[in-house]
Amino acid sequence: MPQRFNSNHYEDIIMTLRRLAALLLACLTALSLAACNANVGAGVTADFSSTPTLYIDQFVERPWLPEIYVQPLTAPLAPLTAVLVPLRMRTHYSNATGLSEELTRVFWNAWLKQRVFPGLMMLEGEKWRGGQGIMTMPSAGAADLVIGGEITHLMFGGTSGDTELAVRLEIYDAATGDLLWSMAHAGSMSTGLTQDYVFFLKKNRLPSSPMLAVAQALAQDMGDPMRNWNYGQTKEQEEQTPLE
Prior knowledge:
The protein has helices at about 5-35, 95-115, 210-230, 235-240; strands at about 40-45, 55, 65-70, 80-85, 90, 120, 145-155, 165-175, 180-190, 195, 200-205. By secondary structure, it is α/β, with parallel strands linked by helices. It folds into 2 domains: about 1-55, no CATH class; about 65-190 and about 210-235, Rossmann fold. The strands form 2 sheets. Strands 3, 4, 5, 6, 7, 8 and 9 form a 7-stranded mixed sheet that branches. It has a 4-stranded mixed sheet with strand order 1-2-11-10, with helices on one face. Strand 10 (about 195) and strand 11 (about 200-205) form a beta hairpin.
């Protein structure tokens, strides 16, 4: 006798096909995001007993490009070297000196990778005293420029809250003490959000250290105009010049 088709078995097949379609849609979305922006990480996790989840790496929000208050009118005849003094912490924290040096080191590493200066040394243990302290700083004569500034706002959110960072930088001529650059920048990273698209879920994924991610993004943004000036390049020329 012909066997009757079980309706429950039919429903299981339909449910499996729906989940396969949802998984495929989530994968295509992840590939599309990765193709549109190489800086955005995406991944998909799924099994046949749950709704597929698309994870997107959370980005650093910057409401504006670096605000530049003072900048040179002409480029130097040759690229200049610099020393970086740990940024002064305006926000009160118990370990302000340690935090300041850690965040300043992020800027130092980012600028080394960007090759903002042909030589860049970080003066660990030195205190930033502003422009008036440039000429009395023993290590200032080791380079053409002295870079310092302040961390004007800092809020640690970790992986469960919002993280915010704002900095102000000043760059002085080490020989004359003249102010060449003055700029400020700010950024934040919000708590990961979950959005339900019926067939799959989309979740924003925070990095293990949101504060370091924000600091690195700000450093790269602020390093761009300085590198262009130091090497006498426009942004278009810089993009056409491959890094060795």
